[in-house]
Amino acid sequence: MPRWNLLLPAPLAAWPLRATFEASCAALGGxxxxxxxxxxxxxxxxxxxxxxxxxxxxxAAEPEQQQFLAGYQLQLLAPQAxxxxxxxxxxxxGADLVHPVTQGAGVHVAVLDTGVAPHAEFAGADLTVESxxxxxxxxxxxxxxxxxxxxASQGIAVLGVAPLASYRVIQILDAAGGTDLDMARGIxxxxxxxxxxxxxxxxxxxxxxxxxxxxxxxxxxxxxxVVAAGNTVSGVIAPGQGMLFPATLPTTIAVGxxxxxxxxxxxxxxxxxxxxxxxxxxxxxxxxxxxxxxxASVSGTSLAAPVLAGCLALGMAAxxxxxxxAGDLLDPKYGLxxxxxxxxxxxxLRATSLPLGLSQDQAGYGLVSAPGLAQAEAPPSVRxxxxxxxxxxxxxxxxxxxxxxxxxxRRPQR
Length: 414
What we know:
By secondary structure, this protein is of the alpha/beta class. Helix content is 27%, strand content 18%. The protein has a seven-stranded parallel β-sheet with strand order 7-8-6-9-10-11-12, with helices on both faces. Strands 2-3-1-4 form a four-stranded antiparallel β-sheet, covered by helices on one side.
């Protein structure tokens, strides 16, 4: 039977008309499938042709949507040690320059994806794995394992951007698929786990108010949501035409992709500002972990999003005072009052990202900089009179290295 996502006046468990709603659903030949706890949405099954507004108290109704992975590319490889050409992403954003000070310890990150497969790179990581799809969170696709590898790899052959952060992997898509309900449940679960930020590289082809409300509840609790801008989908969307949902939401930090020579990836979606990425990160031929304990070179904004999320985690760990904000603030991108930590993330990206000669529509504020985020000043209301965020050597040398970009970055790699 078709499924519908329905907005109620209150969460179903606390709604006085719950019994009437459930009886009406049964009388129409349907049934409730899942209710969310933190927002008043419920998913129901109804027979074909039945109008969901026959049910009592419905404020809005949306047909269920399927999640999808927007066309990533990969090449299987077998590196034996850290190679700054294979594992180039953390070096390009300067994560290695911040690692002597922090590798992300104390920051909790949720990774919403296809789960994770066992890998030697994760042996020392602070990592838990669960699923909203069923009892088995194992990754059979490879996408989730690749995403986590950019963040949490312990340095055998891949350098994770924030290898000592705590990771909570939540499977929202498996071999049988996944829906907008699973996405909303994953976001809700990330909030229940008390993470500081989430990264998500799974998208929807159209908007979902249920997912938007789940993300709003998540960020209003003082958290940050990082999402991929999306890749070209033939016949659906191409660069210059905007981004895919939920990257289009003001409550998310959207991330585009660049290659090794700082060119915008041909597949990276963007549109007229502000329907464009907040910043960009490496997302072409990124060396990372794969299924069966292997490694792969993977391309997609799916890889850029966790790289930027890892940089934010390093910044939060190195300089908690820079994130000491609460309530709502005026957002510099959308001109709206938004949750303070989302606004703070944008302010810091605007202040610290490195210019690449790309337009704001294409690359937002520029290339994310881990040293820049780690040294960001605290907001004026909490800023001490004289603060020193990182050793001077990291400050001057780190930014100089990133701006100069060593010659081998500029040579196309074959």
